[in-house]
Amino acid sequence: FLMPAQGDWEIITKSFYPELPKDIYQQTQVLGWQDEDHYIRINCQYNAQQNLRVEPANEVGSGRFDILNVTYAQPNADNTATLYYKMTKEGTTYTVAYSTDCKTWVDGGTVEDLNYIDPKFGLFATQDDSNDNYIELSFEYVAVTSRNGEVLKTDEEVLLWAAQNAADYMAESLPAEATEALSVKAPHGYTVEFVS
Question: How far apart are CA 184 and CA 196, in angstroms?
Answer without folding.
Answer: 16
